[in-house]
Predict the structure.
Amino acid sequence: MSKLQRILNSREARKLFRDKIAVVALVLIAGYLLIALLLMCGVLPPKAYADVVGPSNSRGLFLSENAEKRYEIARTAMLGKVKRALQREDVEVALDEVHLGWLRVAEKPPEELKSIVEESLELQRQLKAFERLDDDPDAKALLTAFEQKTNQLVAPLSGADYFMHNAALLLGTDAQGRSILFRALYSIKVAIQIGVVTALVCVLIGALLGSAAGYFGGWVDYVVVWLYTTFSSIPNLVLLVIIAYAFTTSGSDAKDTLLPVYIAFCATFWIGTCRVVRGETLKLKQMEYVQAAKTAGFGSFRVLFRHILPNTSHLMLINFSLLLIGAIKSEVILSYLGLGVKGQPSWGLMIRDAGNNGDVMTGFFWQIGTATAFMFVLVLAFNILSDALQDAFDPKHL
Amino acid sequence: MALLEVENLVKHFPVRGGLMNRVIKQVHAVNGVSFSVDKGEIVGIVGESGCGKSTLGKLIVRLLEATAGAVKFDGHDITHSSPSALLPFRRRMQMIFQDPHASLNPRMTVGAAVREVLAFHQIAARGELNTKLDELFTQVGVNTDSKEKYPHEFSGGQKQRVGIARALAVNPEFIIADEPVSALDVSIQAQVLNVLMDLKAEFNLTMLFISHDLKVIDHFCDRMLVMYLGFVVEEMPCQDIHADALHPYTRALLGANPVSDPDKRSELTVLEGEVPSPYNPPQGCPFATRCDLVTDQCRQEMPPLVELDAGHRVACWEVNKTPEPITAAEV
Amino acid sequence: MTTSEALLTVNNLSVGFHTDRGDVTAIEDVSFEVRAGEILGIVGESGCGKSVTSRSIMRLLPKRNSFIGPQSEIQFDGHNLAHADERTMRSIRGDRIAMIFQEPMTALNPVFTIGWQLDEALKYHTTLDKSQRHQRAIEMLKAVEIPNPELRYHEYPHQLSGGMRQRVVIAMALCCDPELLIADEPTTALDVTIQAQILRLMDQLRRKTKTAVVLITHDLGVIAQICDRVIVMYAGQIVETAAVRSLFKRPQHPYTKALLESIPKTGREQHQTRLPTIEGIVPSLFELPAGCRFQDRCEFRQQQCVDQEPQLGEEVDGRKVRCFFPLSEA
């Protein structure tokens, strides 16, 4: 039987898979991980989440825009850009440069484009005469004509581009016209990356320090316990803010990477794991198989790494899952405070943007809604999984 | 010739407490125990929980550090040897543990557990590990097909056999068995005792057999030490303990042991009271608080272990005084 | 003795568990009776179903993953406890049938004094007022031979030794004068000298109070010391039941005989001889053989034992045996 088969066949795994909700959570997490992995492989071009892909604050394909907004979109999207390009010396080059996300200028001679622009501007002037666009049927008809006219400026999309364009606009855009869906998706990658790296490093540090403290006792134990009691007596978030702030203001090269976030998290998150592994080691140290290993003459490191640490693996697994969630949630908070992720999308940044621009107040809830929903599902799934893992490893729980 | 000599071994466990985490009291686990084990002999140590018998075993294999006294193995004092100096003795001296469920690493197959010892001590070359393993498993009666199974797939008796195989892997001369059959069912207990008896005969092993069960000690050992509250109160051959036992505590243990014969019900003698706290052992004889024969002398002075017959030593003022040892009237 | 004296009659009791390897029957076709004032011993090795039997009488098995067979009957004073509802059980548990366990510490709440806990039990099961309850609690502590009961009344469980704790647990179990006491390995965690004290105490108490006792143990010595009748269980079934003296003198089931022989004997003759053993191990409840469950380990096995499953025979001289070829008196 292979190792994997053995793990899948173990009592714990069977207990875990019997828990239907846990299986659903596992599937969701697998989905998130897959997205994160694909994004890390560069499936999504940077322009998809970083560039302007459409008009600002559009409401996406699920909700219809009101007439004012439609007018605004048609007026600003392509019309203005083409108009400006046509005024330049090197018309051909300028027209070629014009783009909005995946949209490009239709391949028509500049004269034809010019006439379309002028006709559009004429329609725009007529529309300006109306006080209110929404209630007036005449205005509505005129608006539709205006939209159709401006659309003639745009080259028709096909295949992948068409798909990407619609996907980008599916859940609307933010104040800068960036795709909310793609930003939320890309945030998965950032969140998972921070979560996994932090959890891995912290579990490793915690397990090593904890088991060493428990096993060797004496001054090693003294130092480790002193270290974690000191660290845990500082309010967690405050410490994170201080460390992150130090990096933000230092102007170092690390400013735009995730490094400050990693350092801030790893400095405090190892404590929980360290504590439980130390406790478990104190218990395991008394186990007879550990004493048997000592009487066999094995050195401390062999006893520690072959006979004690492997038997704390269930704790490491549970703590990994808990830490991952903790790191993701803290990342969102730090980013919201402007001390976390820089130069990449993050749910925290999205929520912060939505709040800062007062978008939520004006009924534009897509951005904050999407970011929250993505985060909520992931956190919930991981919480359910952590609970299920704890139950699965609890011998008293049938 | 004595393979193991224990001289005045003492172990106190400090109990810390209070604000400054100072040592506030000492648990007197082992109080000046001396004995020796000859080559090829099985010596039993019997006593109730807390009498220090397990601590004594752990002191001898250096799982614990002695507070005072000396442990000599084959003439070498190993009481304070460094781990590297101890290594050759580790190869000659092994331990079998009580709880078969706790004595094997749950994350290692039973084969891997024994192979690890074989490889570490270079008992067998890499290619011959499995041959040697099969040999060991056959000796203790474990199916060689189940080498790659994990401990939880075995019954208690089988696990205990694996534990014995692991101890035998280094070809030791001396084995300390700490309650090796206490956690097993009666029928399995007999199987494991037989295995130990066969191995003893085959390899001329010397054994220190620790147990709370007087029946097992009596059946299995050549000689036994009876411990009470960290002291050896009686040391005697195991030929016929019912007739020979002299110390009131040994006699009480014998009397309290239920006999599997409904007709001998009336003979169950009940020792009143309980073992005193090992924090503050009473001055004088440790057994004075529960003893029928107690006198003022017992309460004030610890009786020395006095040799009455060859190999029969008793620490009791009253017994040592009596010219005629108590007869087997109550047996 | 006739069945009319029976205090508790167990008929066809079978109990199973849902496990992740499927359902498994832990005990099957267990039938016996307990008569007023007697000590009935149930003996067997781990996994034989002796604890499951006692727990199903008290209905203490987890509801979620255990089930009692529909034909099972546990008759106690007109109630069928096998299928009684929780309310009926509450009126019987503790009040009329009490239970004590192997580890006394788990039966006592560490944050309350033993006096408080005795008082609580009395408050729940009796109508005594406060001073009467205190008096009764002290009486009970005296009855179980606890020295200085007034002092001990105010102490916490951790201040007592293991033997003292077990005495307190017995006092709590007996404070409502139950008709039946179920003791599940009550002395296994104790030293022999303390075990002797507790066994003597239980014997005295049942003579004084006429409480019937079901004593569950793996130790044949304990059975020999204190029981009147014995049930021997193996792999979830009763294999033999008899009065204690005849069982020890003339075991009829090969398992009983082998079990008795495998106990180390004291004395010069058998010193350092090989012990007779029962080879092999108890079959897994998941892979029970067809035919007799003891067949693989039995030295008297015949073809019939492999082909057919023996039933517990008719009562002869107060004993029953589940074997096609019961051992004769030789």
